[in-house]
Amino acid sequence: MFQSPKGMHDILPSEWPTLEKIYKAAKEVAEFYNFSRVETPILESIDLFVRGVGEATDIVEKEIFVLKTKGGDKLALRPELTAPVIRSYLQHGLHRLPQPLKLFYFGPLFRHEKPQAGRYRQFNQLGFEIIGGEGDPLYDAQSIIVAYRFLEEVRIKNLTVQVNSIGCRVCRPNYRRRLIDYYKKQKVCRDCTRRLEKNPLRLLDCKNTNCAQIKLGAPSILDSLCTTCKRHFKEVLEFLDEVNIPYSLNPHLVRGLDYYNRTVFEIFTEGNDLALASGGRYDYLAEMLGGRSTPASGVAAGIERIVETVRNEPVFQNQRIKPKVFLIHVGEVTKKKGLSLIEEFRKEDMPIFEVLGKDSLSAQLERAAKMKSPIALIFGQKEAYEESIIVRDMETGVQESVPLSKVIEEVRRRLK
Ligand code: AMP
Description:
The chain has 416 residues and is an alpha+beta fold. It has two domains: 13-171 and 225-316, 2-Layer Sandwich (BirA Bifunctional Protein, domain 2); 325-415, 3-Layer(aba) Sandwich (Rossmann fold), CATH 3.40.50. The protein has 16 helices and 16 strands. It has helices spanning 16-32, 46-52, 58-63, 82-91, 137-153, 172-184, 190-198, 209-216, 227-242, 285-288, 303-310, 314-317, 332-347, 361-370, 381-386, 407-415; strands at residues 36-37, 43-45, 65-68, 74-77, 101-110, 122-131, 159-165, 247-249, 261-269, 277-281, 296-302, 325-329, 352-354, 375-379, 388-393, 399-403. The strands form three sheets. An eight-stranded mixed sheet has the order 1-5-6-11-10-9-7-8, with helices on both faces. The longest helix is centred in the N-terminal third of the chain and has 17 residues, at 16-32. The mean pLDDT is 94. It binds adenosine monophosphate (AMP). Adenosine monophosphate (AMP) binds at residues 80, 111, 113, 118-120, 123, 125, 275-278, 300-302, 304-305.
């Protein structure tokens, strides 16, 4: 028997009502805060991620799925969506629209990670990006606010935001030197020995237990920020205070992608050490991709982690089926006529259940009861001949025959 690939899952019918509620909340929040939807291809040039996310990041070094096309091009299954969205922004000259441009997206991503709860090889993100404009700290705060409000909207409780600033081109080199000085004196894991050479900030991201201990003594970047970055960060925090978003400073939060500068953040719910949403400012990404300098900030939330968090909430469990009439047929002629009666109902935008493939009356009645249909329409040979149909109240069992031409009217009256 075939199985889905490791770390990749089917989304079964039972899971869709929850997912649809999540997507509905996402759309409502996006609409309220004026984000417009964008969708980019699943495949992108691998260079987009090498240049945008960074060659020495886990995503590009270890996790990216690459395929070769018949023409010999190397394409990547997108491991993140910010670089593709900026690619699209630059490609289509979206800077000509009023700025900042607020975009949101849903879609699958692929990372070759070790699968475990909350970490998959194919997963879905909902993201919000605020691109162009002034690089105002207000937009950093808004990236946090929109994600926070969305998570509240899907009934996730006890949310906290961890926030940090990783500075800019001016002040980060100083911090990098301080970090290297500190780490050179420590005994770190093999990966970190490499990070020390290639991408020292990533030392703070290591999950190894010994390295996590070492991190506790590492210098804080907040002490190395230049005056402009300090002021920018202070204002972000003031905006968060203004709208009562609870946050805590985490001076060791750096995030695994190269394009971030200044504000970075992660949003957690109590009792789970995997972030539900993460993001930050990325003012250099457009330039790194060959475009003009474009300040930007954004956030992405992991849909699977959200589903796992809300699955047991009563509001997501009680998936009430809307009452629908149930069409029952007896005999071949009525099966055919039944099929066209369904089309009549569709024209009137009236939902209807059926199992026309089953011929037994009792089996169909049983299904109508199971689907909790308040009314069954029983279409027998005699009725087909007389151009009528039986309307049965499923609760009382009382039946009455009505002309076929009046059935929609009758059902509408009863379902009111
Ligand atoms: P990132 O793109 O790494 O900043 O991640 C943004 C969000 O996507 C995280 O906060 C998680 O909720 C989610 N996420 C990241 N990696 C995975 C994964 N492998 N499986 C499931 N969700 C993930």
